[in-house]
Amino acid sequence: MPSATHLLRPDIAALESYTPIVPLEVLAARLGLPIDQLVKLDANENPYGPSPRALAAMASYPYYAIYPDPEHGRLREKLSHYVGQPPERIICGAGADELIDLLMRAFLTPGDAIINCPPTFGMYAFDAALQAARVINVPRDEAFDVDIEAVAQASEDHGAKMVILTSPNNPSGNLMPRADIERLLELPLLVVVDEAYTEFAGSSVVDLVGHHPNLVVLRTFSKWAGLAGLRVGYGIVHEEIITHLWKIKQPYNVNVAAQVAAEASLDDLEYLTGNIMRIVAERERLYEALSALSGLHVYPSRANFLLCRVLGTKDEGRRTKEDGSMKNSGSSATEIKDALAQQGILIRYYRAPELRDCIRVSVGTPEQNDTFLAALRGLFA
Ligand code: PMP
Description:
Blueprint: H1 10-14, H2 24-31, E1 39-40, H3 52-60, H4 73-83, E2 90-93, H5 95-107, E3 113-116, H6 123-130, E4 134-137, H7 148-158, E5 162-166, H8 178-184, E6 190-194, H9 198-201, E7 215-220, E8 233-237, H10 239-248, H11 256-266, H12 269-291, E9 296-298, E10 305-310, H13 333-342, E11 345-346, E12 348-349, E13 358-362, H14 366-380
Parallel strand pairs: 1-11, 3-4, 3-5, 5-6, 6-7
Antiparallel strand pairs: 2-8, 7-8, 9-10, 10-13, 12-13
Helix pairs in contact: 3-11, 4-11, 5-6
The protein binds 4'-deoxy-4'-aminopyridoxal-5'-phosphate (PMP).
């Protein structure tokens, strides 16, 4: 039998597999708990789910046997009002994830350089690797701010084509100052600003797209509108570039249910804004409660999650509170994550060295957050 593995692209053959997320029912079975007892705070999803209008619109939509509108015209009209940009500058994707991939396919050929500012969303480096691009990492500082001049220097040194930045950043939750983005826009680069969490921050640079042909802003319905499972995101892209993205996009990339649900969400902003406000209020309550635990340093966040550094653990890179004291929680980030998972509470932890002593918790409902806090206090007691 002839094998075909030697015919694979060598860079794909050598690529490490992506660790897939375990489905809820599998997790529940593994932990021996019913699904509705899981407190899922590990993927920055919206604990309130979709708007009832989105659910009703999907239930009553009659044309699922027909292919979707490849230009998602109605959705772009509604998005145009939502973002204050003309529909001609808007393109939709199966999640912001698809648009990240699309941009990299449009701009990066093997060996091209892209600037990444870790710690940040992992898909940037992953998608760049699929294009066999060179990922030039310009690490963020201790407060997770981007060193703009270091980005400018690295861009010049490596002849980079693109820089991709998240604001608010995942996993740290901090915003990029608008002036920093304006400075980057002076460089001969495509500047991609991923605003997946912008609705929780109340701050955006989308208004700059019309004035800067080298700016792309990415957004999603996964977080604020509770549609993560339906996969719908969009990009606001200058006319000079968007035509090229239309050429390479799969025609039916956004499925009909996702388009219907996204349109209905934009018709139900009052309801969804109420949920955003609840999440933001809970974020602040959670921040205060977590900051009161002596074993944690909590980073201020403008998103729907909080990053916490576990202090004085066995992990390398032991850290101290600002007052210089070393409080010992006794548990490492992974031990905390495992102990919470045993109780059905799921949070995110990291293998990257700079985050190995960190956990990230998504903001849930008040009840979910109380369950998480009580369990965490139990571990720190
Ligand atoms: N960008 C960032 C910064 C994210 O954190 C995520 C989701 N975790 C995405 C993009 C992907 O969003 P979507 O669900 O729209 O693909």
